[in-house]
Amino acid sequence: MQTFFLCVGLLIGLMICPFATSAAPPATLEKIRSWSHDGYTRVVLDLDRPAPYEVTLLDSDISISLTNTRPSARLLKTPPAVSDGVIEKVELYQHDHQRLAVILTPRRHNPYKVFTLENPDRVVIDILTVPETAAPEPGKKVEKRVGKKTKKKKEPEPAPVEPASAIRTIVIDPGHGGHDPGAIGASGLTEKEVVLDVSHRLKTLLRQRLKKRVILTRETDIFISLGQRAALANRRGADLFISVHVNAADNSDLRGVETYLFGRPTDAAAGALAARENAEDDKTMRDFDKVILDDMQREFRLNAALTLAHFTQASFAERIVPKYHTTSLGVKQAPFYVLAKTKMPAILAEIAFVSHKAEEARLARPSYRQEIAEALFAGVAAYMESPEAGGGP
Question: What pLDDT score was predicted for residue 280?
Answer without folding.
Answer: 57
